Amino acid sequence: MQLHDTLTALADPTRRAILARLGAGEARVTDLAAPFDISLNSVSKHIRILERADLVRRRRAGREHLLSFNPQPLDAAMAWIEGQRALMTRQLNALEAALKEAKP
Amino acid sequence: MQLHDTLTALADPTRRAILARLGAGEARVTDLAAPFDISLNSVSKHIRILERADLVRRRRAGREHLLSFNPQPLDAAMAWIEGQRALMTRQLNALEAALKEAKP
DNA sequence: ATGTTATTCACCCATAGGGGTGAATAATGC
DNA sequence: GCATTATTCACCCCTATGGGTGAATAACAT
To answer: CATH number, domain at A73?
Structure first.
């Protein structure tokens, strides 16, 4: 599922940092790994999870893999979250209306 | 961390369903468990994680625990996601501007 | 007092996944 | 061809966590 993969991908601090870094532009796996003191391998796995969510796209240039950030799946995530919030807002409005009805 | 707890809480389908259900109003643990064929205990644990993220509030009425949905932490999550998307938009705008500069 | 209902606590089990290392693959530079 | 560089593949380890069961706690109902 698209939404699930997206939220799962966002639920890890390393992956969030990677996305933030990619917000500044394309980067190689090695570049992405630099700020963290975890192995290249580990970063590579995080990238795979980000790719599964289609949040990251890969472009090979020779032996380098250039990663870029695709924000599109964020729309679905935002929509879901916004939807939940809307439910709550409606509920609160109904409550408020009921109170106004009962008070006077 | 607030953001982390929130995103972690949202990264599970059962918890998302629980939130969606709570969007319709307060419910007991038993009510929340009904749609799933998992044990009450399991649901109880999910609720604990939702409470950790402050997405769910608990109100005891006698022996019943009434759970309600607190959408406030969603704001921080939305803000973070929106921020990432904004980074990307700025990057794309810069690229576009550079192209326009180079073309003619 | 006793039984029933609602929930959690204290465990156990299995899997996912975040971390590591070392070998394999592939492209560059010489 | 050979060494170097960039990345992945194939493993292993360990913790978090989603799931379960059975006992404990707490509040009704009788």
So the answer is: 1.10.10.10
| Distance (Å) from the alpha carbon of B77 to chain A's nearest alpha carbon | 9
Side chain identity at residue A12, one-letter code: D
- Does B99 have pLDDT greater than 80? no
Output the six-digit token pair for A51: 């790719």
Beta carbons of B8 and B50 less than 8 angstroms apart:
no
Q: Which of residues 30-49 of A touch strand D (CB under 7 A)?
A: 30-31, 40-41, 44, 47-48
Closest to B21 in 3D by CA, of B90, B77, B75, B68: B68
Instruction: Show the domain range for A28.
Output: 2-102
- Residue B41 CB lies within 7 Å of the nucleic strand C: yes
In the predicted model, is pLDDT for residue B23 greater than 70? yes
CA dihedral for B95, B97, B101, B104, sign (positive or negative): positive
Comparing CA positions, the residue from A69, A86, A33 lying closest to residue B81 is: A69
Closest-approach nucleotide to residue B40, Cα vs C1': C7
Whether the CA torsion A39, A5, B2, B83 is positive or negative: it is positive
Amino acid type, B7: L
Distance between CA B26 and CA A50 in Å, rounded? 35
Q: Which residues of chain A have pLDDT under 50?
A: none
Please count the structural domains in chain A.
1
User: pLDDT at position B103, please?
Assistant: 56
Quick count: other Cβ atoms within 10 Å of Cβ B89? 12
